[in-house]
Design a protein that fits this description.
Blueprint: H1 2-12, H2 17-24, H3 28-41, H4 45-50, H5 53-60, H6 71-76, H7 80-86, H8 94-104, H9 111-121, E1 138-143, E2 148-151, E3 158-168, E4 174-179, H10 184-198, E5 204-206, E6 214-216, E7 223-224, H11 226-234, E8 238-239, H12 251-268, H13 276-292, H14 302-310, E9 326-331, E10 337-340, E11 345-348, E12 357-362, E13 366-371, E14 374-380, E15 389-390, H15 408-418, H16 420-430, H17 436-453, H18 455-468, H19 473-481, H20 507-510
Parallel strand pairs: 1-5, 5-8, 11-15
Antiparallel strand pairs: 1-3, 2-3, 3-4, 6-7, 9-12, 10-11, 12-13, 13-14
């Protein structure tokens, strides 16, 4: 949804579909489809910005395809054969052919677009394009092929380090950083450190099609992984991966990698490092020299060009650092909870979603549960050991809410008021590894016996059940019904045979 929002923002700022396509890397026909639905919706940008992701999906991701009829294309295509034949005549140029076309179709393509289509028809080879980079437009990122090394101070083991490189397209200001791996966490860390090094955010971040950034590579519209997409949204920019097998798309960063071998690697290799922070501290020293060195054939450096041209064009940084988000799917269990696998802990969702498969997005502090594109539950991530089920009252069905006030402290307080033997027995019921509400119901049933048989008999029954090692409502009920319980117990439990297995009904029956 953030990609669609970005397209609409650029469109609202006066950008055309070609410019938006170049900025976002999204195919022009896809952009036209979104803009067509935007126009049909008759909504303002203010209304669009206030819409949730679920509302946006219903507006822009509907199943019915939209056919955009381009009259200029339908007019030109039948004429291309005739125009190609005209070029075979002496003295006829493409410019003159365009003049003939423009007289017949004054509202048709402009000169450059006409010639591109004519060249494509004639199967002319495509010339290489020298890229002209706009200030504040793109930051190119990549990992170097060669690696740096750490030496373990204790064992002498050599540890290889990946090296992340970022360069701004216009000024060519460069950032270099050593990381442990090319995993998405280290890749995003490198991108974030680069943005803070530059002091601002460009319109787009251009990575190679590495797995840390791209889930599915494509010549026209690559699919970003969720974490990198969330990072781009956090800094109000977007990822624009290069085309596969097109090294010229990232020529700047490829050049920066080669230069870093001579300006940084050669100097770092002269010293032995034991800590990652040490090596990155020295990299910044050599990087400052590199960025302040005059460019070949010019009287200015990368840093001077950055300050004069590009610095003021960068967007402001988000005041908060990005916290990586992890995504997992989970089916709502019969108790109305989804399980966060990494913690083996359960979080509640509205009971009407029982049985549905939902998406969980979580950070180190919070998790959001989604049904399709709509948030259905938000919880602070619990990192303690006491609770296994985290429940919000509003998520419970009305007939379950009465039990939501149950908690171990409440049961232990009541048990202590009856007697120490009951408190010891209740504590062991609560310690069972079952769904908490099961234990709470057992506790409630056991404690309710005090009103029916008195505190003394309940204490005796709990001591006897504790001697059997059985902790549930059913065994207490069976003991209280037996004649053996009539014996008064003072200092020790009399040796009475445990009720037969056939007579003791299972805990599940009572719970």
């Amino acid at each position: 949804m953030f990609t669609i929002r970005q397209i609409l923002r650029l469109y609202a700022s006066g950008k055309g579909t070609k410019s938006i396509s170049q900025s976002t890397g999204i195919a022009r026909n896809t952009i036209k489809k979104y803009l067509y639905r935007y126009v049909l919706s008759e909504k303002t940008m203010e209304q669009i910005e206030k819409m949730s992701d679920a509302e946006m999906s219903r507006l822009f991701l509907i199943k019915e395809p939209i056919k955009v009829v381009n009259k200029r294309v339908s007019d030109l295509e039948p004429m291309l054969t005739e125009y190609a034949a005209m070029l075979k005549k002496r003295g006829v140029t493409k410019g003159k052919v365009f003049e003939v076309y423009a007289l017949k179709y004054p509202d048709g393509f402009k000169s450059s677009a006409f010639i591109v289509r004519l060249n494509n028809y004639m199967q002319l080879s495509k010339p290489s394009l020298k890229m002209t980079h706009i200030a504040g437009d793109k930051m190119f990122v990549d990992f170097t092929g060669q690696k740096l090394h750490l030496v373990d101070a204790a064992t002498g083991e050599i540890i290889e380090l990946e090296v992340f490189v970022a360069i701004l397209g216009c000024s060519q200001l460069t950032f270099v950083m050593a990381v442990h791996s090319q995993c998405k966490e280290d890749f995003i860390l490198g991108c974030e450190r680069a943005l803070h090094f530059f002091g601002g955010v460009p319109q787009a971040i251009v990575p190679d099609n590495l797995k840390s950034a791209v889930t599915k590579a494509s010549k026209y519209e690559a699919q970003l992984n969720d974490t990198f997409a969330a990072f781009a949204e956090h800094y109000h920019t977007f990822g624009y991966p290069t085309r596969t097998y097109r090294p010229k798309d990232k020529a700047l960063v490829e050049g920066a990698v080669k230069i870093s071998y001579t300006t940084i690697f050669s100097k770092i290799d002269q010293k032995v490092y034991h800590q990652l922070d040490e090596i990155n501290k020295d990299i910044l020293v050599h990087l400052e020299v590199h960025n302040n060195t005059k460019l070949t054939g010019e009287n200015y450096s990368r840093m001077q060009q950055f300050i004069a041209i590009e610095k003021q064009t960068l967007k402001p940084l988000n005041p908060y650092l990005f916290e990586p988000t992890t995504v997992q799917l989970s089916t709502v269990n019969k108790y109305g909870h989804v399980m966060l696998s990494v913690d083996k802990r359960y979080y509640s969702v509205p009971y009407k979603l029982i049985g549905k498969r939902l998406k969980i997005k979580y950070t180190t502090t919070q998790l959001h549960v989604y049904d399709d594109h709509e948030i259905v539950a938000v919880h602070n991530r619990y990192m303690g050991k006491e609770l296994k089920y985290i429940t919000t009252q509003d998520h419970l069905a009305s007939h379950h809410k009465y039990a939501s006030d149950w908690n171990p402290q409440k049961f232990m307080t009541t048990a202590n008021e009856i007697g120490a033997g009951v408190a010891q027995y209740i504590a062991k019921i609560l310690a069972r590894e079952v769904y908490p509400e099961q234990s709470y119901r057992s506790c409630s049933g056991v404690l309710n016996f005090a009103k029916r048989v008195g505190n003394a008999r309940l204490v005796n029954a709990c001591k006897r059940a504790d001697s059997y090692g059985i902790y549930n409502y059913g065994i207490i009920d069976q003991i209280l019904r037996s004649k053996a319980d009539a014996i008064q117990i003072e200092d020790e439990i009399p040796t009475t045979e445990m009720p037969s297995h056939e007579n003791v009904r299972g805990a599940d029956y009572y719970e």
